[in-house]
Design goal:
Blueprint lengths: L8 E2 L48 E7 L5 H14 L4 E5 L6 H5 L8 E4 L2 E5 L2 H21 L6 H11 L4 H14 L6 E5 L3 H40 L15 H16 L5 E7 L3 H16 L6 E7 L8 H20 L4 E6 L8 H8 L5
Parallel strand pairs: 2-6, 2-7, 3-5, 3-6, 7-8, 8-9
Antiparallel strand pairs: 1-9, 4-5
């Protein structure tokens, strides 16, 4: 989702030209590619330079990274920038420590809440997402009961927790992704993900759930054959006309299909992009390195880095400020050196909290669409 002339974004592998007498610094960390003609606007082209179509598929952007680096701010600002460009956009918080409401300075509910024109936001309710999947195992328990195998509610919960979900937060986040996969209501869905560990479990969850559902379907198939055999012995040919109680569609198969679709979408660069947010500190850079390796292992498309809270405009008479700025310059240079194939965006440090649409606008100006 890149535009042709983005402030603060350096195309991959392109470095700013040297300025005579001026050292390479964060202040010079933006570079635009010259062109003989005016660049196309976002309203004319999609992220690949093709004309926007009215029936274009929903595009997904996931912001991830270490906790406390500003993922929510970047998510909210990206949503705002897309909305200002006329794109119908939904911002989704899957982080258990929701802070979207603070960023927008508005109440955000579990259903899409209108923030401003073209922009909606929602905060995922972990219990709601988990309950949908727990119901599947409750249905399996009912079928087991038909052949004399009784499971208490606690047994169903244990079966679900052991096989289907590393944690309720990840299940709820995945359920939110599934909910908007086939919805054509929004052109863009921007996800504010949980810190790195949660996010990696989330990326693995479609495979885990799919395998668990497949195992449950196998158990259910055996149970149904046992039940059919018992009915046949008791009722004879009439058993085939009786059907099964509560059989009104294959929910297990439907969930398995949805999980497979989510897994494909998370790996599809034509509609999904993962952006990693970090700050100019050694630990954040190291964690970014590990996260990018994991994303590559999952085949999740990630080619953009956002270095947030970069000290730039300082009081030159302040020795401590100059030292900190110099440190940030070195860290940004280190990011460029370690990740040369990634688009790099720098966001300057902003005094105070980034709350409210006006404050988010300043960040949005630096982010790619």
């Amino acid at each position: 989702m890149r535009s042709a002339n983005l402030t603060g974004v350096r195309p991959r592998g392109v470095f700013p030209p040297p300025v005579p007498g001026v050292s390479h610094s964060i202040a010079n960390a933006t570079h635009s590619v010259p062109s003989d003609r005016p660049p196309p606007t976002f309203s004319d082209l999609n992220r690949f330079g093709a004309p926007l179509l009215s029936d274009a598929v929903t595009e997904y952007v996931l912001y991830g990274g270490k906790g406390g680096v500003g993922k929510t701010t970047c998510t909210a600002a990206t949503g705002l920038k897309l909305a200002r460009a006329g794109r119908e956009t939904l911002v989704v918080s899957t982080d258990p420590a929701h802070s979207l409401a603070d960023s927008f300075e508005q109440d955000v509910r579990t259903e899409p809440t209108e923030i401003t024109e073209n922009l909606f936001a929602t905060e995922v309710d972990p219990e709601r997402g988990v309950e949908r999947y727990r119901q599947l195992f409750a249905a399996l328990s009912e079928e087991l009961r038909e052949v004399g195998i009784r499971l208490d509610p606690e047994d169903v919960d244990s079966l679900f927790a052991a096989g289907a979900a590393p944690g309720s937060d990840e299940v709820a986040a995945l359920d939110a992704f599934v909910e908007y996969v086939d919805s054509d209501r929004f052109e863009y869905v921007i996800f504010d993900t949980a810190p790195t560990g949660h996010t990696l479990r989330l990326l693995d969850l479609p495979s885990v759930v799919s395998e668990t559902i497949e195992t449950a379907m196998g158990v259910r198939g055996q149970v149904r054959r046992m039940a059919d055999s018992a009915r046949s012995m008791v009722f004879g040919p009439a058993a085939y006309a009786m059907g099964r109680s509560g059989e009104d569609g294959d929910e297990f198969e439907a969930v398995k299909t949805r999980m497979e679709r989510v897994r494909e979408l998370l790996r599809d660069p034509s509609c999904t992009e993962f952006r990693v947010v970090l700050i100019p500190k050694a630990m954040a850079i190291a964690e970014t390195d590990r996260l990018l390796d994991s994303l590559a292992d999952f085949s999740v498309p990630a080619d953009s880095l956002v270095v947030n809270r970069v000290l730039d405009d300082i009081d030159e008479s302040c020795d401590r400020c100059r030292r900190q700025r110099d440190t940030h310059e070195r860290r940004v240079a280190e990011v460029e050196e370690r990740f040369p194939d990634f688009d790099l965006t720098t966001i300057p440090a902003i005094e105070g909290e980034v709350h409210g649409l006006d404050a988010l606008e300043a960040v949005a100006d630096r982010l790619a669409l």
